[in-house]
């Protein structure tokens, strides 16, 4: 029965081996860690989403900038036909007379928002035409060659002033946020890379272990036949061979799953067979906390976000305060106008016209509505400041822990690399000692397990190093290997 199970495992393994020529027909790509990170930034769905988010922020900023540039507009009504009964006063009394008129007008206006006052300056030029159809087609023109004026809120709250403070900060935050997102894409790429790398290592370990177990089992059979080992040891060797075959099959399945995961992330189809080159070295980099924290305060978008939240809170308080008292708007204009029966005459001797209007609104009884809004704004302002102070403390602690962990990773890596080498040598020695009968199968299995654990620990140490390295890059937006800030050609992202 045991030999039957052994042959079943061999048969299953051959099925997997037979599938390899089919895979060989697919496109094979050998990728390093750096290549995977670059591809992830350029091809992954997460990278594409980050670019679209930045483009949205860019056009939002462009909209803000456009508000402070002159706007030229043309408005026209061509035509406006009006047929109705109108009340007229005659010597004999009032009556209703049917009137039909055809009206049209055109106006060209130039407007400019004034940031430091919060008002708007305007300049208009227009022409109106009225034709009374019920009076033999009598036509009249009203021209406004030029009219200039301004509208100025007098409440003390200047929305443009706050926009000038907040909107550029939001756009700068969007730039930093894009760089941060790209580093987040890199971190995910690293995770997927080492998931597949570990799957490759596990399959390599499983194949070697199966081959060794098969060889040792055959040797054990010969030694059992001449009576140098007990049946218990032979059965244990057979069981080890079966377990090795099962582990190899499971490693094959896990490899396919991890390869599919990385392929999907990088935008490859299922016909691409990926083989990874595990980095053998790490850069010798030591990061000072003071430098990292200073760069994080300067570059991290979360810090800009906290500053923006404080400004928005200040704006809300100022707006609520302005609504408590007198609200007033000033409107003033000066222009030239003339009425005539022809267009040339309408522009010949225009007369001046002026208009000044001050609108007031003073709340008399609002049952504490404006006061309540102001108090809520003040309370929200204090909440924001408290939260910002706490988040800055948490941020400093996060940077400190990441720097400390990273600075330990090079030692961890070298220890793991040394342990991997020693564990492999120990297994080779144990295998030779088993072959000459110096140790039993239990000691050999212990050496085998230690070898496999050390190999996986080496890959995990590599993974931790690069994960911490890119996490610090994400916090500081700074490359500590090249000693340069992370940069991007933002104009290229808009195209």
How can the largest sheet be summarized?
Answer: 6 strands, antiparallel
- Number of contiguous helices: 11
Helix content: 55-70%
Structural class: alpha+beta
Structural overview:
With 495 residues, the protein is α+β, with helices and mostly antiparallel strands. Helix content is 62%, strand content 23%. The protein contains 11 helices and 10 strands. It has helices at 2-24, 33-43, 45-67, 159-225, 231-266, 289-299, 301-322, 343-346, 369-435, 441-476, 490-494, and strands spanning 27-32, 71-90, 93-114, 119-132, 138-153, 272-277, 327-340, 351-361, 478-479, 484-485. The strands form 3 sheets. It has a 6-stranded antiparallel sheet. The protein has a two-stranded parallel sheet with strand order 1-6. Helix 4 (159-225) packs antiparallel against helix 5. The longest helix is centred in the middle third of the chain and has 67 residues, at 159-225.
Give a concise summary.
Strand 2 (71-90) and strand 3 form a beta hairpin.
Detail the topology: elements first, then pairings.
Layout: H1 2-24, E1 27-32, H2 33-43, H3 45-67, E2 71-90, E3 93-114, E4 119-132, E5 138-153, H4 159-225, H5 231-266, E6 272-277, H6 289-299, H7 301-322, E7 327-340, H8 343-346, E8 351-361, H9 369-435, H10 441-476, E9 478-479, E10 484-485, H11 490-494
Parallel strand pairs: 1-6
Antiparallel strand pairs: 2-3, 3-4, 4-5, 5-7, 7-8, 9-10
Helix pairs in contact: 1-5, 2-3, 2-4, 3-4, 4-5, 4-7, 4-10, 6-9, 7-9, 9-10
């Amino acid at each position: 029965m045991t030999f039957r199970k052994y042959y079943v495992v061999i048969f299953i393994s051959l099925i997997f081996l037979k599938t390899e020529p089919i895979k060989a027909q697919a496109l094979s790509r050998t990728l390093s860690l750096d290549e995977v990170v670059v591809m992830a930034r350029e091809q992954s769905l997460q990278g594409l989403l980050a670019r679209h988010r930045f483009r949205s922020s860019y056009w939002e900023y462009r909209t803000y900038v456009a508000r402070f540039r002159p706007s030229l507009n043309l408005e026209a009504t061509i035509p406006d036909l009006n047929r109705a009964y109108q009340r007229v006063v005659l010597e004999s009394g009032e009556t209703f007379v049917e009137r039909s008129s055809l009206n049209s007008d055109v106006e060209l206006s130039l407007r400019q928002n004034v940031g430091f006052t919060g008002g708007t300056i305007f300049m208009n030029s227009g022409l109106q035409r009225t034709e009374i159809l019920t009076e033999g087609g009598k036509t009249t023109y009203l021209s406004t060659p030029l009219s200039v004026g301004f509208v100025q809120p007098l409440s003390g709250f200047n929305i443009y002033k706050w926009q000038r403070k907040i909107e550029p900060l939001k756009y700068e935050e969007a730039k930093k946020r894009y760089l941060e997102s790209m580093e987040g894409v890199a971190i995910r790429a690293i995770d997927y890379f080492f998931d597949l790398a570990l799957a490759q290592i596990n399959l390599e370990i499983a194949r070697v272990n199966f081959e060794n177990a098969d060889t040792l089992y055959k040797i054990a059979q010969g030694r059992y036949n001449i009576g140098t080992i007990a049946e218990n040891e032979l059965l244990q060797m057979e069981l080890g061979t079966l377990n090795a075959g099962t582990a190899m099959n499971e490693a094959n399945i896990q490899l396919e799953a991890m390869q599919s995961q990385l392929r999907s992330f990088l935008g490859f189809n299922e016909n691409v067979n990926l083989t990874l080159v595990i980095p053998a070295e790490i850069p010798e980099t030591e990061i000072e906390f003071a430098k990292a924290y200073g760069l994080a305060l300067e570059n991290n978008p979360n810090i800009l976000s906290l500053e923006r939240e404080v400004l928005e809170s200040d704006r809300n308080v100022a707006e609520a305060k302005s609504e408590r008292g007198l609200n007033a708007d000033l409107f003033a204009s000066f222009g030239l106008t003339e009425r005539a029966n022809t267009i040339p005459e309408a522009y010949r001797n225009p007369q001046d016209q002026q208009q000044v209007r001050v609108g007031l609104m003073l709340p008399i009884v609002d049952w504490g509505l404006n006061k309540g809004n102001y108090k809520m704004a003040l309370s929200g302002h204090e909440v924001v400041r408290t939260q910002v102070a706490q988040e800055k403390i948490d941020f400093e602690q996060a940077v400190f822990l990441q720097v400390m962990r990273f600075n330990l990773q090079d030692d961890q890596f070298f220890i793991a690399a040394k342990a991997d080498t020693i564990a492999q040598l120990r297994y080779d020695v144990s295998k030779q000692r088993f072959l000459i009968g110096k140790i039993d199968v239990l000691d050999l299995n212990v050496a085998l397990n230690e070898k496999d654990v050390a190999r996986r620990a080496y890959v995990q140490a590599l993974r931790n190093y690069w994960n911490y390295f890119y996490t610090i890059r994400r916090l500081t937006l700074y490359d500590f290997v090249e000693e340069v800030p992370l940069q991007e050609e933002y104009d290229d992202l808009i195209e």
